[in-house]
Amino acid sequence: MNLEQQIEKIVRANGAVFYDTETVTEGEQTIYRVYVTQKDGVSLDLCTEISRELSPFLDVHPPMGGKYTLEVSSPGLERKLTKPEHYMHSLGEKIKFKIIGVDKGKGTLIAADDKGITVETKHGKVSYAYDQLGTVKTYIEW
């Protein structure tokens, strides 16, 4: 089992769904973020419990060399979509997307499968394979 599969197992044991990981540097600090979701929302208590269980596991199986800080949180309402599962769980939501080497767009995600997505834009329905897409994020119109 790889590291993400082990993390997913710990997250699932706490009644949540593993979303993704991210490593970022803020100032001189390296942060290893584990994003989790849950049908009724992610609470601070849930993040704390998952962090308590992940911490000793990551002490034995570090995600990287050197010092880092572990953070467990929700990916938020406006979140990056990077895996087919992310798209499938975001059907009906508004997205902003970049098409590699071409243009930007936005619309409502109306279909997703293992190969690509379909978006309803102001110009009609358009479909893209995942390898055509750059950054894709959900967004909220306030």
From the structure above, extract its key features:
142 residues; 2 domains; elongated; GMP Synthetase, Chain A, domain 3; alpha+beta; SH3 type barrels; 5-stranded antiparallel beta sheet; 3-stranded mixed beta sheet
Descriptive notes:
The longest helix is centred in the middle third of the chain and has 17 residues, at about 45-60. The protein has 2 domains: about 5-75, GMP Synthetase, Chain A, domain 3 (2-Layer Sandwich); about 85-140, Roll (SH3 type barrels). It is built from 3 helices and 8 strands. The strands form 2 sheets. It has a 5-stranded antiparallel sheet. It has a 3-stranded mixed sheet with strand order 1-2-3. The chain is of the alpha+beta class and about 140 residues long. The termini are far apart.
Structure at a glance:
The chain is an alpha+beta fold and 142 residues long. Helix content is 23%, strand content 41%. It folds into two domains: 71 residues, RimP-like superfamily, N-terminal (GMP Synthetase, Chain A, domain 3, 2-Layer Sandwich); 55 residues, SH3 type barrels (Roll).
* Mean model confidence by pLDDT: 94
Figure out the total of helices: 3
Within CATH, the superfamily of the largest domain carries the name RimP-like superfamily, N-terminal
Give the helix/strand class. Answer: alpha+beta
Largest sheet: 5 strands, antiparallel
What is the second-level CATH architecture of the largest domain? 2-Layer Sandwich
Care to count the β-strands? 8
Succession of helices and strands: HEEHEHEEEEE
